[in-house]
Fold this protein.
Amino acid sequence: MKTSSKPGCLASIMNLLGGKPDPVSIHSDADETDVETFPYRVRDDFLSPAEQSFYQVIKSMMGEHLTICSKVSLADIFFVVRPNENRGAFNRINRKHVDFLICDPKTMRPRFAIELDDSSHQRSDREIRDEFVDNVFEAAGLPLIHVPVRSAYNTSELGVLFKQALQQNSENGKPIVSSPAPDQPAQPGQQGVSNRAPFCPKCGQPMVLRTAKNSDKAGQPFYGCVNYPKCREILPANILNNPTQ
Ligand SMILES: [Zn+2]
C-alpha cells in the first residue's frame, strides 16, 4: 500500500505519528483502490489485558528454556490420522485455538498448552467447547493446563503445574510398542503399504517402506509413517524380524 505519492509529505508524517488520515482522500488514486479489497488492520487487542498480564508472568518464568506461542490454532498443532475417513474431525478443530502453546525453543516441538480461563468459560456453550478441546489434547497426548484468570499469580504453583506437564509430555513422547503381529517379515526394497508393514506407533496405520536419502544412512531402507511429514515416526526396516528392537 503506497501512501507517499499523492497525499504529500504531511500525510506521510501523520501516518508515522499515528494519525488516521481519511482513507478516501489518501487512496483516491485508481491504482490504490485495493485498500477496499483488503480491508484489514492490525488489532490493538491481539492479547487481552488478562492474557497480556499472564503472558508476562509465564515469560519471566520460562525465560530461554521454553518458547511461548499465543493463540495457536488446533489445526496447526494436531493432524487427523486418516484425513479421508475423518473429514469431520478436521472441521471440529479447524476454527479453535488455545491461548498459549509452550514449545521447545530449539525444535519448536509442542510440549504443553495453557488455557487462561475467565468467567466466559462457565457458560454452557463454552464448557462444551472446553471439554471437547480437553479430549483432543488428551487423545493426542499433549498436556493442557487450565489456569483461572487472576489479578496476580502464584509462580511456585504455576511452576509445579508446568513441571508436571513437561514430565507428562516426555512420557507421552516415548514410543509406544505397537503390536502389529504380522506373520511374515518385511522385504526390504518393496515399496508401498502392505499388510506385512508394521504399524506407526503414533498413528496406528501401516507404515511405508522407504529409502533414506540423506545422512550416513543414505540408501538404507526404513519404515516411515504414511502421514509424513505431519508424523515423522520411523522404524528400522528389519523391525518385523526383530520386534524387540
Ligand atoms: Zn504416524
